[in-house]
Amino acid sequence: MERVLNVIISGVGGQGILTASELLSKVAMESGLDAKKSEVHGMSQRGGSVVSHVRLGPKVYSPLVEKGSCDLILSFEKSEALRWIHYLKKDGARVIINDLEIVPITVSMKLDVYPQDIESIIRGKVNADVIIVPATDLAKKAGDPRTANTVLLGALSNYLPFSEDSWQKVISESVKKETVDANLRAFKLGRDYKKT
Question: What CATH number did the domain enclosing 138 receive?
Fold first, then answer.
């Protein structure tokens, strides 16, 4: 990798966003790159928005992704992809989204409306490749519904220059021992998933 790659990982509290950003950073470092990350927890304890900026490259000076410079958004919830879309670069960006809708309290109280056809909205704002992944269903197939974040990392891994072996090594060393097998299965399911 010759330049810095800017990634935003977004979702809501409890989805494993911070774990995913940590794993991504470790894989980059395992592969000989520099990595910096920054997290905004928000109301994570109450299911509020959580975002992590991750920058990877030969030398990274700042952990923050500037607006209009993000190469890739990995979103664990559909509407959270929209929340950060203004960070994407205008051309050649990619958005990977979990096919999951978590209705915010403002929508439940009829103070707001949950956006429909998020994929089209994103495509209308930027020239981006949008990939919807049924990560929650694939995590259940892996044997643990809590591994949806690892499924999404598997999908993301297809667009990064890191070996599958590096990912498997970092996952095996980083997650709880009793969840290693489920996480490795989840990663593989995400990596092998092809949108039909």
Answer: 3.40.920.10
